[in-house]
Amino acid sequence: MSESRDDKDLPQGTRRKWLKASALTLAGAGLYGVAPFYGPWKTNRAWAQSAQKKPLVIGLTMDTSGQYAASGADERLGAMMAIKEFNDKGGVLGRSIEAIHMDTETTPATGTRIAERMITRNEAAFLVGAVHSGVANAISQVAQKYGCVYLNTNSSSPTEAGKDCHRVKFVWDGNGSNFSHAIVKNAMKVSGKNWLLLTNDYVWGHTTSKATRAIIEANGGRVVDELLVPQNTRDFAAYLLKIQQIKPDVVATAVGGDDIKALRQQVVQLKMNKSPAWINNQQDWPDIYGLGPDAIFGVFGTNWYWRLDLPGVKEFVAAYQKQYPGIAIRTPGNVYYNGYMATRELLRAVERAGTSNNLAVIKELENLKVSARERMQHYDAYMNPATHQLQQTIYMASYNDTPAEKDDIYKILAQAQPQDVEDKDAPGACKLEPLAATPSYEQ
Amino acid sequence: MLQLLPHLLNGVSLGLLFALIALGFMLIVGVMETINLAHGSLFALGMYVAIFIVTPRFGWLPELQAAYVALPLGTRYAVALLLAPVVVGVFGMLLELCMRRTYGKDPLYGLLLTFGAALVIEEAIRAVWGSAEKQLAVPEAISGAFLLGDLIWSRYRFFAAGFACLMIGLLWFFLEKTPYGAVVKAGAHDSEMVRALGINLSRLRLFVFALGVGLAAIAGVVMAPIWGVRPQVGVDAVVPAFLIIVLGGVGSLWGAVLAGLLVGLAVGLTGAYASEWSLLSMYLLFIAVVTFRSRGLFGKKSVLDT
């Protein structure tokens, strides 16, 4: 096999050697600390001499590849919609708003690199976006170092507003603990006390299942087993066989992204969607959209649905469809909603503060209260100043077998008030850095 | 033991599917010594072409389309199994034509070209079919579940494993029992001698590449109902495919099959008994084998080993 290549003569010129040598030299120099000489680059535009004010740059740290590619794309549309609405009325504080996006690849290391780059090179005033809790945590560590306000739009690990909280970070989605509180007690009454946990093997999965386990055990239930699902698992046959052997009453999943899509399809193939009972802690709209009625089984949590009979919802949906005609996901879901709401409230906070200075904006966001009408939810929402997580209405849903129209795939079973589903452990675990210890940052 | 048996059976079926995914990759690496990083994207393209063939949606020729859709699902599925690899194989031929400039040069050029092609194909899929999840409909006869012992099994999974066996058998027959297979193997062993015997090496490579890519597409069609269909699904295929051919020994058909089975058993058994290790287990197996046998299980001894 060693002779199989069509061995034409390799070019022997010195240019390649020179290039290789140069590359090696540069790499070597970088290792010895010369690299920082080349950066970080700063774009020093002459805004002071211009009649126009410097645009406010918002860095969108959202996945377009990896496990949460679909959700990353969806939340980006939400953030872009909020930015467009502000730009249509003249921007904020007389400044137009520019969005820059970089793919965080559902990878924490990429999140760190991109956050660093957006702050130091792109002069981002704020960072917005994340679905994966590891990525959100990585971005927020960089943001805290510089003092740049960061919005975690869709990552719902309890650690985000718990042990990994930061003064500059604000969390906009309901977390695993909120959803567990809303769903588990009721499911125990209906389906039984022997539970099996199916847990994505990373921080969101672990912390969400931990919260679920605590509620099960506090209510006299029993966790018969917990199976960990590595990220990017595509074949669930071994898990489904094991579940059949254990025979739990309920399977509670904390599995997200492409993993949950594959799991749902394989559960349906085995016709296990009716028994045992399935509980999915939180179901993101892009992960369920287009799967077909059979694959949407069990009870799951969400913080918004496009057919909620509340003021403003119809207009919100119409605006989405007008702005994004022909898009594959024809109706907005919770991930888009969170991207939109977080960005809108950030820009409103900047307006109220009258400055883009981080410390002023942080104070505004810490005291944030949003009426139910403004949130298009059933109850008023408020930011918990001790954890920086938005406390909001949590909905329990299942598949809608009597849809009123296309895409009407959820049946909202109940809604829980924010204070009833509060994550009681978060305030104890969250140690926010003092405001005085957070660097002042303004772009 | 009775508890273990279902997991052994599951591991074998999973292993056959892994082997099926790796077959096309093995052929291209073995004959052309080119690592085709676009293998996964072509696997995904096979899925999408099959969806188009099973449920075509285009504006023109509505009567013809309606008549075709009226055919039984089984017929359309069979057409997809036959036609999707041909369509993707033609695509592969175009890719091979582009690759010719890289032959005889640093292998990095081929790697970069196929990596670029993988990105282009994935984005093209997004542009044509969108990013949302899609499903490939399968005939009633091979879908659903059945009871074996007191456990429910997927009928489609057994069909897929059986189909993988058939494809492995056909490829073995082609390579070992036909004169064309002999030429392909000779091309892998000593391309200069093959050329000296008057065989058109360029055409041979074009054919092998198309065959390898066609096999990737077949694997895509078969795996679509199990893994689901999304533009980035190719990444899930290319990594195990690469691992399996190195584990089995580059260019060895039975090496790839055995490696696929071992990987399937490792993933299946750890999935049941140490689930957090289920994905990592294939890499641990890989490290364990390659540490002691660097050329893989059935790989030929190279001059470096002496």
Walk me through what this model shows:
The complex is a heterodimer of chains A (443) and B (306). Chain A has 443 residues and is of the alpha/beta class. Chain A has 14 helices and 15 strands. In chain A, strand 8, helix 8 and strand 9 form a beta-alpha-beta unit. In chain A, 53% of the residues are buried. With 306 residues, chain B is mainly alpha-helical. Helix content of chain B is 71%, strand content 3%. Chain B has twelve helices and two strands; from the N terminus they run αααααββααααααα. In chain B, strands 1-2 form a two-stranded antiparallel ribbon. The longest helix of chain B has 28 residues. The interface between A and B is large, with 48 and 61 residues.
Mean pLDDT score of chain B, rounded? 89
Q: Which class of secondary structure composition applies to the elements of chain A? A: alpha/beta
Number of helices of chain A: 14
User: How are the strands of the largest sheet of chain B arranged?
Assistant: 1-2
Find the count of extended strands of chain B (DSSP E, 2+ residues).
2
Q: What gyration radius of chain B follows from the Cα positions, in whole Å?
A: 20 Å
Distance between the termini of chain B: 44 Å
Number of beta strands of chain A: 15
Tell me the radius of gyration of chain A.
24 Å
Strand content of chain B: under 5%
Strand order of the largest sheet of chain A: 7-6-8-9-10-14-15
What is the percentage of strand-forming residues of chain A? Answer: 15-25%
- Report the oligomer: heterodimer
